[in-house]
Amino acid sequence: RGASGIMASNMPRTTRVKNKAPAPVQITAEQIVREASERAEEVYKVPKRKIADADELREYRYEQRKNFEDRVRSEYWQPRAWIRYAKWEEQQGDLPRARSVWERALEHHSREVPIWSQYAEMEMKAKAVNHARNVWERACGTLPRVDMFWYKYIHMEETLGQVAACRQIFEKWLTWEPEHPAWYAYVKLEQRYKENARARDIFQRYVQVHPDVKAWTRWAKFEFAAGDREKAREVYEAAVEFLKNEPDIGELYTMFARFEEMCHEVERARAIYKFALDNLAKEQAEEVYKEFMKFEKMHGNREGIEDVVVGQRRFKYEEEVAKNPLNYDTWFDYVRLEESAGDIAKTREVYERAIANVPPANEKRFWQRYIYLWINYALYEELEARDAERTREVYRACLKVIPHSEFSFSKVWIMSAKFELRQRRLDACRKILGLAIGLAPKEKIFKAYIDIEFQLGNVDRCRTIYEKALEVDAQNCSTWVQYAELERSLGEVERGRAIFELAVDQPMLDMPEVLWKAYIDFETSEGERERTRALYERLLERTKHVKVWMSYARFEATPVVVVEDDADEAAIAAATAAAEDDEHERLATRQSVSRAVYERALEELKESSPDAKEERVMLLEAWKSFEDSLPSEYSRAADVKAKMPKRVKRKRAVTDDSGHEVGQEEFYDYVFPDDASAKTPALKILEAAYAWKKQKAANAE
Question: Which letter does DSSP use for residue 280 in this model?
């Protein structure tokens, strides 16, 4: 075995617990702790030493001093050793020796705050005032940035009633330009002795050394507490002028407004808040907005509160558009906010800032939201601002910005043209639409132009525009259909028919089925059964689709009734009854002709597309529905039912991409009674077996 095997053999074997049942006597954690404390060994305590006479005391002091001296000699870098030594000498009442220890300690640790502090406190306890002063002077001179020394020194002098000495200490301290608490403590000292003039002089020096909001605010509060409101207001005004470029100026505005609020000058406070919001940067105004909101809730009316809410939301939108100026949804929200506020100048400013952010790429998907900024801007100028000239300029600027060579927006052209039409400037409207056709010939623009001219009664212009549209896009079937419908609505049936003929002769069409259907409906509405039948025959020469056959058969089965577009139900019923008198429109004639179309269609599908069984089933079902709708004397539903196929389940091979067979799948097939290929070899074998069995039974009999 290897080294790992040897190590494994030397490892102690884990003990398995055979009986895992609970013990009959249970023990709690409390009992375990109690037993541990009872069995704990007693801690050794040093015996107390009792001193009987002066000799023993001298011996004890000698031993202790020797121990302390040995320690401070070997661990002179440890301040704690010196402090213990000096404290022990102080307890023995030997102040000269204690002072000697402290002085020796300061030689090694002159910058240790606890040594200086406890040295001075020892002198103060011993009421050695001059010694204490000496220690504090030396401490403050050595470590002038330790505020504790100055505070304790001043407290000692004030306790002794030496106010002049306190002022001298403060003046010496202020030469080092300490932090705010030192100045404020000096002011508090003068306030305790009612020396407001001296305190005011200190504040003047204070704000020069610390020109920030905290210092100025303390000065203003001091004047307010002294009862001089005008002086406090002057301090706030001087602070605003002095700190106008500081980052925390918003806090000063808030304090100023609160001061005016405490003076019951509500309008002054509101003016301060508004001045601050108008002059502060967006990132500095958030807290001011919150305070202004609280102020308006307490002292304002509904309009004031709404103004504050609008201002707060305006601040939020400014932050968002600063982060992403191409976020047009934020611009939409911002614009709606300004529109609801009713300030036209600010609304225009936001619109101008929004439309200045042109999408970086000339792709239409990036421009779709951006264009609606222009559209909303134009609608605002027209409907809200009532400025027609500015609306016109907005539309012109928008059309100049769009790169028409790559893409365009029909909506902008149409809205601009309709605006000019509302301003009764028809020539300008036509010029805009003509320019649109030249730069961006789109179907929507042609349609809008035609609608305008048709409403004005300019039929010749409509025809000209339709012709121009067909020159641009001759494949557009909807344009051909609309052109023909225009002629039909004007009573020009032959012109409409000629347009349809031109359309169906085009080599390429985008939706030919729509065009043919419109042409057929056109002839049907004119009562031209023969022309409609000829159209179906021409369509069947181009396509043998089953839906064409079904539509053809339905047409033959339906009476052709010519009525006006606005005819009522009675007129339609009368026209239908009159059509029954026609030989070609009688039911017997129609059902026989329609049945012939179904039979012809079934044969055509069977011969041209033998595998298109789904289409044949659709045709038979339509034929059956037709026969079921006829009266019993005309119906041949039984013959159609006999032609219906059987639905059978079969299997076929499934191959992979390389052509190898990987399995079989089931599918449903239709077996037609009159299909010669309906009998598969398997069915033929079954029929032969059945015939043999039948013959065998006959022979046995």
Answer: S
